[in-house]
Specification:
The complex is a heterodimer of chains A (175) and B (562). Chain A starts with a strand and ends with a helix. In chain A, 33% of the residues lie in helices and 37% in strands. Chain A contains five helices and nine strands. Chain A has two domains: 77 residues, ACT domain (Alpha-Beta Plaits), CATH 3.30.70; 71 residues, Alpha-Beta Plaits. Chain B has 562 residues and is α/β, with parallel strands linked by helices. Helices cover 37% and strands 17% of the residues of chain B. In chain B, the strands form four sheets. In chain B, strands 3-2-4-5-7-6 form a six-stranded parallel sheet, sandwiched between helices. Chain B has a six-stranded parallel sheet with strand order 11-10-9-12-13-14, with helices on both faces. In chain B, helix 12 packs antiparallel against helix 16. Classes of the chains: A alpha+beta (175), B alpha/beta (562).
Chain lengths: 175, 562
């Protein structure tokens, strides 16, 4: 099973390696990882996509929570959330395909952000299905290079990542 | 008034009430070493290898319950501590290791004696720090001690570059620590505790399975009271020994791979396991699919990651074991009549007594000198009043089986990591903490040679540690596996050892030898009476095995008996 996890961590030297080290040391998977400073400059937000069954996910959440620099861990499994990823795609552009490419980019609300005589570099944002569909359409035209950011996620509605929830998660572990 | 980083370091240790450090100097420690000149309230024990500094700090911590402190130099000094740190980490022992580092400007340049010790120890410390500015030093030291001893204890490393220890700054030791991302849960959830007590009330075949958490939370009195209140039999993990007196009628002995018949059968037949401060390690559970197949499981632990990690738990309770036990005792007290009426496990106790009587711990007596006999005699001669450390292997398992630990913090052994070479420096640490106590390292001829250089430390500081070397000429536990599972091909396990009596004497310690049963009492008494570090070379039967034994991967009920 695939899970999206968000972490609030201290924006300090070495925190990323603690988290990456925890995953590799305990044999957990990381499919993608995004990290950058949050609104509060002392805190970074990390979005990790991982895979594993319920028992593994429970361990991942608990182990992350145990790291001293981790302020809060949220699993989006039981929360309604939105998630978006950005990709950059470099495709072959020949005279006969140029119009077709531009039309597809338009439909997917993407942007051509760089042009050369033989390539287009396209930026698209969206959820996983949309990006997959776009990539599939570009494949026959000829993808030369693809770079993805990995998804970032946020709860829908009023719900927000608040600091005090580290203790709440512990109570959940209590049943 | 401005002070140097080194002076701030010393003042911080004083403010923290640290009375002892185990250390080894080098280029990068010099500022701090110099600042410790004539500081008599901090005893400075200089070891002979940095690994031993951490083991000694660990032994000091286990025996006293206080945080142990080690201080070493950069590069190889720091990397030598890794085994000690990993040992403390696996057994949740509060230790703070200060490693010194090359100048901040040189970090990352492959400078002389530079190692990325913060990176190296990241997975085996509870937390670690690189001090980048002298103004952070006191705060980091305060946090390091707080993290090491609170929650589930563990080792913390603080790396101090040489220019930080020479830089000038203000000294102000913080009174309190607040780490927004670290708030351990001590008080168990009362609803969960009530649910647990309902299960306990109606259980017919309950067993208390307790570990190092009972020792580290100082809960042994509460555990004993709780077991007695409901007559629930208790088994300990290796780390939990001493949590209930080893001669208590409700005590089943250790469980697991070399556990007693009664303990392993009780787990297998139980309908309710009450786990306290234990983590269902593979050496304790055997094959997890067949661990306690008929039982519901209550698990009390301060660390949520230990719960449902190896064995799925029915009632998790996150909290300090002592705190939770006190809460449980209060419920029993408040509902005395209910418990009198409904709690009845007489039949279970009868069955357990049968197991105990029919299959006690034993060994074949065949006119050779048996290691088990030596340990029985150590117990009898000391009346259990000694701090015992062990190395790792057969010596460790026989000690766990045949020395009846009467009190907590008297069994100092590397349980999780299984570090050969732990026992002797740990005994030195324990002896420093308790100069008047009898401290005995029960060793093997293999393990003792992994930190034998510490004889010099023991002699220099006149620490009268006794080392009983159960000398069988083999790496005994590995040999035992070769005997049982590799058709007696003793590849690599036959050891040639030096004359341990002469080695001890060369270092200025006392060397004694036991070669037969009838030497045992006389020589041991002589060793325990003298006030000097002493090696006792005991020539035991070379091919003795540890039994019972649950083969790796088998379930607990599949024991090989004597």
């Amino acid at each position: 099973m695939r899970h999206t996890i968000s972490l609030l961590v201290e924006n300090e030297f070495g925190v990323l390696s603690r988290i990456a080290g925890l995953f590799s040391g305990r044999g957990f998977n990381i499919e993608s990882l995004c990290v950058a400073e949050s609104l509060d400059p002392t805190i970074s937000i990390m979005t990790i996509v991982t895979t594993g069954n319920d028992a593994i996910l429970e361990q991942i959440l608990k182990q992350l929570n145990k790291l001293i620099n981790v302020i809060k861990v949220v699993d989006f499994k039981e929360i309604d959330y939105v998630s978006r990823e950005m990709i950059l795609v470099k495709v072959n552009s020949e005279e006969k395909t140029r119009a077709e490419i531009l039309r597809i980019v338009e439909i997917f609300r993407g942007k051509v952000i760089d042009v050369s005589s033989r390539t287009y570099t396209i930026m698209i944002t969206g959820d996983e299905d949309k990006l997959k569909a776009f990539i599939n359409l570009m494949k026959p035209i000829g993808i030369k290079e693809l770079v993805r950011t990995g998804p970032i996620a946020m709860a829908r509605g009023e719900r927000m990542l608040k600091i005090k929830e580290k203790t709440e998660l512990k109570e959940e572990a209590n049943g | 008034m401005k002070r140097t980083g080194a002076q701030i370091f010393v003042e911080s240790l004083k403010a923290e009430g640290i009375d002892t450090i185990f250390c080894y100097p080098g280029g990068a420690t010099l500022n701090i070493t110099d600042a410790l000149t004539d500081i008599s309230q901090i005893r400075q024990v200089v070891v002979r290898h940095e690994q031993a500094a951490v083991h000694a700090a660990d032994g000091y911590a286990r025996a006293s319950g206080k945080v142990g402190v080690a201080l070493v130099t950069s590069g190889p000094g720091a990397t030598n501590t890794v085994t000690g740190i990993a040992t403390a980490y696996m057994d949740s022992i509060p230790v703070v290791v200060f490693s010194c580092q090359v100048n901040t400007m040189l970090i990352g340049n492959d400078a002389f004696q530079e190692a990325d010790i913060v990176g190296i120890t990241r997975p085996c410390t509870k937390h670690n720090y690189l001090v980048r500015d002298v103004k952070d030093l006191a705060k980091i030291i305060k946090e390091a001690f707080h993290i090491a001893e609170s929650g589930r204890p563990g080792p913390v490393l603080v790396d101090i570059p040489k220019d930080v220890s020479s830089a000038l700054g203000e000294f102000k030791y913080p009174e309190r620590v607040h780490i927004r991302s670290y708030q351990p849960t001590y008080v168990g959830h009362s609803g969960q505790i009530k649910k647990a007590m309902r299960l306990i009330l109606h259980a017919k075949r309950p067993v208390l399975y307790t570990g190092g958490g009972v020792i580290s939370s100082n809960a042994s009195q509460e555990l004993t009271k709780f077991a007695e209140a409901l007559s629930i039999p208790v088994t300990n993990t290796l780390m939990g020994l001493g949590g209930i007196p080893g001669n208590h009628p409700l005590f089943l002995g250790m469980l697991g791979m070399h556990g007693t018949y009664a303990a392993n059968m009780a787990i297998t037949e139980s309908d309710l396991i009450i786990a306290m401060g234990a983590r269902f390690d593979d050496r304790a559970t055997g094959k997890t699919d067949e661990f306690a197949p008929h039982a519901k499981i209550i698990h009390v632990d301060i660390d949520p990651t230990s719960i449902s990690k190896n064995i799925k738990v029915d009632i998790p309770i996150v909290g300090d074991t002592r705190n939770v036990l006190m809460h449980m005792l209060k419920i029993i007290e408040d509902e005395k009549d209910t418990y009198k009426q409904h709690h009845n496990i007489a039949e279970w106790i009868k069955k357990i007594t049968e197991w105990k009587d029919n299959h006690p711990l034993t060994y074949q007596k065949n006119n050779t000198l048996k290691p088990q006999y030596v340990i029985e005699r150590i117990f009898e001669l000391t009346k259990g009043k000694a701090i015992i450390t062990t190395e790792v292997g057969q010596n460790q398992m026989w000690t766990a089986q045949f020395f009846k630990f009467l009190k907590p913090r008297t069994c100092l052994t590397s349980g999780g990591l299984g570090t050969m070479g732990y026992g002797f420096p740990a005994a030195i640490g324990a002896q420093v903490a308790f100069p008047k106590s009898l401290v005995i390292d029960i060793a093997g001829d293999g393990s003792i040679q992994m930190n034998i250089q510490e004889l010099a430390t023991a002699v220099q500081y006149n620490l009268p540690v006794k080392v009983v070397i159960l000398n069988n000429g083999f790496l005994g536990m590995v040999r035992q596996w070769q005997e049982l599972f590799y058709e007696k091909r003793y590849t690599w396990t036959h050891l040639h050892s030096p004359d341990f009596v002469k080695v001890a004497e060369a270092y200025g310690a006392v060397g004694l030898r036991i070669e037969a049963d009838n030497d045992v009492d006389g020589i041991l008494k002589q060793a325990f009476k003298n006030n000097r570090p002493t090696f006792i070379d005991v020539r035991v039967n070379p091919e003795e095995c540890v039994y019972p034994m649950v083969p790796a991967g088998a379930s607990l009920k599949e024991m090989l008996l004597v």
